[in-house]
Structure formats: C-alpha cells, structure tokens
Design brief:
Layout: H1 2-16, H2 23-47, H3 49-69, H4 73-101, H5 107-140, H6 143-153, H7 155-167, H8 169-193
Length: 194
Amino acid sequence: MSFACTNSFMAIYGGLRQVGGIGLYFTVYALCLLVTRPLFGHLSDKYGTTKVAVPAMCCFAASFIIVSRSSSLAGFVAAALVAGCGFGATTPLMQSLMFKCVPHTYRGAGSNTTYTGQDAGQLLGPFLAGVVIDALVPVTGSEAAAYSTMWLVMLIPIVAGIVVYLACQPLIKRTQAETAAAEAAARQTAEQKG
C-alpha cells in the first residue's frame, strides 16, 4: 500500500515542494534496486530472512520520513537510495519466504496469492492516501503540508507489516519445517519406488 503512493504521488509532491528534476528519484531508486537485490539475497542466505527483512522494512519506513521532510532534490535522492534498499530487499525476500512455506506443488498458488496481495495494496494505497490528503488539506492549510503528513500516515501499513511479520515468526518457522519434512519424505518415497 505504501509503495503504491510513491508511484502515484511522488511527482505531484515534488512539484508542490518546487523540486525540479523529481524524476531522478525514480532513476536512483531503480539503480539501487538493481545493485542491492543480489546483495540482500546473499545476506538472507547467510543470516536468515528475518535478520535482513526487518531492517529492510525499517529502511523503507525511513524513506517515507525522509520524503516527508525533503524540500530539495538531494533529500529526494537520499530517500530513493534508502527506499531502494528497503523495498528492494523486502519484496524478493517475502517472495522467497513464501516459496519456503508452501509445498513445491503449491508454489504457483502461493506466488499468485503474494501477487494478489501486492495488487490489492496497489489498488488501496493511493485511494487511502488520497482520502488522507483531502482530509488534511483543511487541517494543515496547504496541499504540500497535507502531502508531507500523508507520507507519515503511510508509515502505518509498513509498521503493521513489520509487526505482523514478527508476530508470525513461530508459524512461519513451523510451516517451513513441515514443508521441508514433507518434501524430504516425498523425495525418499520417490527414490524407493525408482
């Protein structure tokens, strides 16, 4: 939900802040994704998903704080770097985690469920952010201040995601162990028949 706001509102917000060249945000973000995704995959393999995913989600949250306070292109570029590291690591890690939690025969359904959740967030995020902006303009007195506050409000889904992820760790670990055991038993049965 929060990420969808970046795509929907960053250019408008940059214009309201009178920041020229705001498109550089997206260029830096994309380059950061390209560089950091392989790195975070390696770190996840080495240290485990949780030790990489939680800091990555926190980086993504920090990028929203930076954006809400930015009034120069340098601030937006800094936010793009932090967001690229955060969201760029989180998305493939969550996809990888899903693959570890479902049996091999259900990976297509698991992947589709993950993407359905992302699509729902892409639908709801900008709508809810727009509602927040409309509600805040009279309170803050300016559209730019309303957008600035909206970025902080959109921290709520990120923080909720971190809390849910951490709360589900026992379930995730149990599911991973059960899936691994079931796949090992299936392999052993196939070897005995073969």
